[in-house]
Amino acid sequence: MKVLKIIGLTLLGIVAIALLAAAFMRKEYLIEREITINKPKQEVFNYIKMIKNQDNFSKWNKADPAMKKEFSGTDGTVGFIYKWDGNDEVGTGEQEITKISDGER
Predict the structure, then answer these.
(1) Considering only 6-10, 13-17, 19-23, 92-96, which range has the smallest mean pLDDT?
(2) pTM for the complete prediction?
C-alpha cells in the first residue's frame, strides 16, 4: 500500500508541476519564415498583387482543388474581389483589394 501511495503522490506532483508551468508559459506564439526571391522587386510585386496567382502557392487551393471560385473586377487593381466556397477544411470566404501601394510590402 505504501508503494501505491508513493506512486500516486509522485504522479500527482508531476501533474501539479506541469499545470503550474503551463500557467506561467506564454499564451501567444510567433512563427516567422523567410524566403529569398532572386527577382527584381517590381517583378515580384507585379506577380503577388494578382490574386489569381495565389493558386500557384496557396495551401488552401491544394487542400480543395474543386473549390468554387468567383472573381469580380480587374485582378491586381483596387476593388477586385475573390470569393471562394470550399470543403470543411477550406471553408467559405472573400478577399478584396482595398489598397495598393506600388512597389511596397
Answers:
(1) 19-23
(2) 0.61
Reported as a single tens digit per residue, the pLDDT across 27-66 is 788 889 898 989 998 898 999 899 999 888 888 888 998 9
Name the region of 82 (left: φ>0; alpha: ψ -120 to 50; beta: rest).
Answer: beta
The count of structural domains within the chain is 1
DSSP string, 21-39: HHHHS-S-----------S
User: How large is the average pLDDT for residues 68-95?
Assistant: 94
* Residue 71, domain member (yes or no): yes
Q: Is 49 exposed, middle or buried (0-12, 13-18, 19+ CB in 10 A)?
A: middle
Residue showing cell 468567383: 70
Residues 75, 51 contacting (CB under 8 angstroms): yes
24 is a domain residue: no
**Structural domain range at position 67:** 41-96
